[in-house]
Amino acid sequence: MPIETTAGEETDAGVTAQAGPDVADTADPLADAAAEPRAQSEEPVPGEQGGESTAEKRPPHEDKAKKEAGVANQVTDAVWTFYRGPVAFTYNTFNGAVTAPGSTFGVREGAGPRSGGHRKVTGRIGDEHAAATVRRYAAPPCFVEAQAKLRTHHVVVVEGRPGTGRRSGAINLLREVTREPLVVLSPTLSLRELAERAYDSGFGYLILDHVYEQRRVDLEFTWANVQENIERAGAFLVITNSCVGGTASSAVPHIAWDLPSAEAVLRAQLGPREDLDTIVHDVLAAFGDDAAPAKLAAVARLIRDDNLSVEEALKKLDESARRQVLEWFAGRPAHRDVVAAAALCFLEGTDIRTYEVLLDDLHEVLAGRVSGKRAKAQLRKRDADMFGERETRLHGTGLLQMRSETWNGAPIEIVAFKDDAYRRYVLAELWRTQTNHFWDSVCEWLTEAAVSRFAESHTAVASGLAWLACSSVNETQRCYLEPWSAATTGWPGQVTAAYALWFMCHRDELASIALQTAVRWARSGDSDQRWTAAFALGGELGMFFPSDAVNRLWQLMTRDTDLWVIGCASMAALFATLSDDEDGDPVTVLNLLGKKMTDFGTGAGPADRKGPVPAVQLMRLRTLTMTAALSVVSASSIRTGRPAVAEYLARNRRRAATGAEPLAGNRRRMAMIARIWAGVLTFRPLRWEAFFALRLALHALRDIDEDYLATSRDFGTALAEALPEAERRTFKDAFMQVDERARKGRKEPLAEVLVACIEAITRKIHSGGVR
Asked: Per the count of CB atoms within 10 A, which of 93, 189, 254, 707 is most buried?
């Protein structure tokens, strides 16, 4: 069921919580509200006390209403508990890695979104970005043929290895045939979906790393339908994949993508300058003629924009680190040194004691896989040399080092690589040189020791797995992600598998693979894998593919009531994560909730549906819609701990005030949030929670918005427009009841920010305005 999306994004959407990490709830004002009596208890719903002339009389409870209230409150309790506990713990653990001692986030690790590394994969390509890609492009020999076929057939498939410049090539191909906007579609769209979706005339569409579809009887027919649909719309589509020769079709041209010459790439990227020949010579001497265009472009960009020397640019892009790692391996290091480096690839930044305990475990696992007493003794090496290894790491000339850090005010010693960039190259060389015996031992060790016993190592293990995926996606998925996502190691493995997908989003060419993996888990018959998929979609993966994430979450929840809790919690976390990121926008989450509120909020069902919706199904979908909506508007910012919706409203107002965003866009977003909130306020089972969340959000505006009274009044006006007339008349009494109970009898005047909102709604009543 399609929903309204931003900037050409494509969507396809249409109670017991799984056990999570056993952690204590964090301090949260919502804890008091969750403990309060609810609508189905002897306490009245806010604004509905008997005997008050302004209160709406509550109709007698029917079995349907009781069941609806019971399910909604059970799920809401579980979502809040889960969101404040396991979800908050795991999301903060991941995001905390940005500033944790020994973390390898930054330029070389692939920074998380809060340090500027986030780029949404799907959606409209900015005109400036497209123009810059065209301006400094060096075309490969196959470009002219691909351009001619795209102009004729309107669809072309570009096949080539990752890193060969397929994305830049696709943008340039589309710019050769159209000047209209360019839109990146989801890589998980099937050919049938591409054949059925609507396209805007003249637009250029791009799919990066499209999911390969196995040959079937109607494959050729489906490709033909895709081509006819796009040509009929007057649009253009370029699809990239890495299956060279594996997706050939006579209906759509498939082009084997060539590498442009390294010299041509450098000259195009650097532009005219006096020392151009010298720089090109020095870079080619370091890289060779077969370097990936992406690396050449990155070096040229550092030299051109940051005024770095060739040596400085290469160092910043890890090339010097790569050479040092290769030289270390070429020196034939001792077996124990190799194992120590291998262990650190999955334990980067771990404290010294934890690292040494786990390193001993790896030695034991390796010793168990060899035969002969002498071989086992050599691996275990129970002699005096072993006791000097810590000092060797401290003062030695190898790849490892010990470093003093301060963590939570206390000094600790951590183990780390001397250069953050070493890890990816150590893993690449280990994968190239070590046999299955070695990797089977690593898998057993990570599964039984690192993941199951030490929760603090989860982010480091996941990051190492993402780097391993750069060398072998199959090994990473088959040995680690697939079994762990199915809870073979319990919730620690599920969380680590989700973390690995998040890290893969920040690795070259792996973001689409991470999404495809999560989609496969979401479609799995294994409930544990579906749970892991729901959890993964609420974090970094959802930031890169927001439309895919919200629609998959909705599908998971509608198909399996056991996933309501994790689904609602993940949708709330996704909203908070997108709100926290300066480059993110949670409007995709709001769009879905707004659409579902229209379809199911009144209990009447979708207006465009042929035939009535069964009553049981309608009640279930209405309850799910309201629970998900409440979860989102109640979500706390992962960055600040304040209500995420308040942070979002304040940010939009600031952007509108500075001209960074049109004022009309800010009003539309505020109206959308108000409509969602109004829907929950009119849903009696969750009326108390909705009022309490509104009170928290308005109070939070005082701390984050300089003109908080104006924001509160504007939101009150939008909320008055969204509320039915009868609900407006009970709003003030209900809100004051909630405020009084929240203050727990303390005699305090009503906060001015709450007064501003109430007055805006009161003015709507007195003006006689009715929607």
From this structure: 254
277 Cβ contact list (under 8 Å, min separation 6): none
Tokens 């992962």 belong to residue: 638
Q: Among candidates 566, 740, 461, which has minimal Cα distance to 553?
A: 566
Q: What is the pTM of this model?
A: 0.80
Helices (H), 446-510: 452-453, 458-471, 473-476, 482-485, 491-504
Strands 236-241 and 204-207: parallel
Q: Among all chains, which residue has been given the structure tokens 């090539």? A: 169
What pLDDT does 453 receive? 66
Q: What is the DSSP letter of 600?
A: H
CA–CA dist 574, 586 (Å, integer)? 8
Query: Which two structure tokens, joined as six digits, stand for 649?
Result: 């409203």
Task: Write the DSSP symbol of residue 288.
Answer: -
Q: Which two tokens stand for residue 534?
A: 């729901």
Whether residue 303 contacts residue 310, with contact meaning beta carbons closer than 8 Å, is answered with yes
Q: Rounded to the nearest 5°, which phi and psi values hold at 353? A: -70, -45
Q: Residue 522 and residue 531: Cα distance in Å, rounded? A: 8
Task: Note the pLDDT of residue 489.
Answer: 86
- CA dist., res. 672 & res. 203, Å (int): 28
Phi, psi of 599 (to 5 degrees): -75, -40
**Position of tokens 């609420």?**
538
Give buried/exposed letters for 200-225 (b at 16+ CB in 10 A, else e): eeebbbbbbbbbebeeeeeeeebbbb
Q: Can you tell me the distance from the alpha carbon of 165 to that of 194, in angstroms, rounded to the nearest whole number?
A: 24
What tokens does 157 get? 């498939």
Q: 516 and 552 in contact (C-beta within 8 Å)?
A: no
What tokens appear for 412 in the block? 């600790």
Residue type, 423: R
Between the two ends of the chain, the Cα-to-Cα distance in Å is 28
What pLDDT shows up at residue 139?
Answer: 87
| Strand 182-185, strand 204-207: pairing | parallel
Cα–Cα distance, 558 to 567 (Å, whole number):
10
d(CA 476, CA 465): 6
Residue 182: which H helix or E strand, with range? strand 182-185
DSSP label at residue 447: I
Residue in the block written with tokens 């109970």: 741
Contacts (Cβ under 8 Å, ≥6 apart) of 460 = 346, 347, 348, 349, 350
Give alpha helix (H) positions in 369-435. 373-380, 389-395, 422-433
CB atoms within 10 A of CB 252: 22
User: How far from 356 is each of 386, 448, 452, CA to CA, in Å?
Assistant: 11, 16, 16
Q: Name the helix (H) or strand (E) containing 237.
A: strand 236-241
Helix-, strand-, coil-residue percentages of the chain, each rounded to 5: 60, 5, 35
Tens-place pLDDT, residues 289-305 = 667 787 788 888 888 88
What distances in angstroms separate CA 188 from CA 195, 222, 230, 241, 649, one per listed residue?
14, 16, 18, 12, 32
pLDDT of residue 628: 92
Question: What are the distances in angstroms from CA 146 to CA 293, 591, 694?
Answer: 18, 37, 55
Q: Is the dihedral of CA 42, 45, 47, 52 positive or negative?
A: negative
Residue 123 amino acid letter = G
The DSSP call for residue 446 is I
The continuous run of DSSP H or E covering 406 comes out as strand 400-407
Cβ atoms of 464 and 346 closer than 8 Å: yes
Query: In the structure encoding, which two tokens stand for residue 352, read together?
Result: 């010294």
Question: pLDDT value at position 371?
Answer: 59
Rounded CA Rg of the chain: 28
* Number of residues that this document lists for the chain: 771
CB 698 within 8 A of CB 690: no
β-strand partners of 155: 237
Low-confidence residues in the chain, pLDDT < 50: 1-45, 48-62, 64-65, 96-118, 382-384, 770-771
Report pLDDT for 207: 92
Tokens of 373: 């007493």
In the numeric block, the tokens 């509550």 are attached to 58
